Amino acid sequence: MKKSYVIVILLFAVCFFVTACLSNENIHKKSETIAATQRPEETETVTATQRPEETDELGAWLKQYKAFLQDRVPSEEKEDREFYYLTLTDYCNTVVPGETEDGIQYALFDMTGDGMPELHVLTDDCYRIHTIKNHHLVVWYGGDRYNRPLNNRMILWKGDSESAGESYTVLDSEGKEVVFISFTRSFPTSRNDYGYFSTGDDDIKVSKKQWKKLRKPFLAIGSDKIIWKNIGDLDF
Q: Could you tell me which residues come within 8 angstroms of residue 211 by beta carbon, excluding any fewer than 6 positions away?
């Protein structure tokens, strides 16, 4: 009885959290952005009503993003209190600019809610989100190639096998993790199949039915607003 009560509370908390994220997305949807971040019918593009300094700032950001994708400028990344200046080639493994462009994709999508798009870059080796701070390019988030952004600004990690599970991460405006939720499962071995649900601390063992209920709200979060393009198609 006690275990069922705990699961009900967890389910309520998860559903509340997802609803809050989606509501937050609706609020920020009014922010002006660029056409590449969303489908044309859902996007408020830059108009003449914007202040000149806003369009100038957007243009400056896009100029640096393009230079990075052309492998002409580096991006600053901090790891263990050390700073590194890495070019696009440094983020690749076997696929590098000049050899083939098929394995490198980019997207422009606002992850901080400030109305300015971040640059998402997916290579054969990793996934990075770049933004502009103090007028130069920096890494806002870094992960492996199994990471993807979602419409509500969560980051989904999904392994290449069913047993690997998946996780959902929420970051603050500075790129620091504030929420982490993961779902993993065991291989079906009996009628008492089970899975695990975690919020970053200990894994909580739950029944297959409970696991599906907890996971269901997250599966409803789409990613159709993130338009991925090949780096050979720099149309901004």
A: 183, 185, 194, 195, 196, 197
Can you give the pLDDT at residue 159? 83
- The rounded distance, in Å, linking the Cα atoms of 215 and 183 is 7
Distances (CA, A) of 26 to 29, 30, 92: 5, 7, 35
In Å, what is the CA distance from 96 to each residue of 31, 123, 125? 35, 9, 10
pLDDT level of residue 40 (50, 70, 90 thresholds): very low
In the chain, helix, strand, coil percent, each to 5? 30, 30, 40
pTM of the predicted structure, to 2 decimals: 0.77
3-state secondary structure of 37: helix
Residue 87 contacts by C-beta under 8 Å, 6 or more apart in sequence? 68, 71, 73, 74, 75
Task: Residue 130: count other Cβ atoms within 10 Å of its Cβ.
Answer: 23
- pLDDT surpassing 50 at residue 43: no
Q: Which two tokens stand for residue 168?
A: 């959902």
pLDDT for 161: 75
The 10s digit of each residue's pLDDT in 45-90 is 333 455 656 689 999 999 999 999 999 999 999 988 899 999 999 9
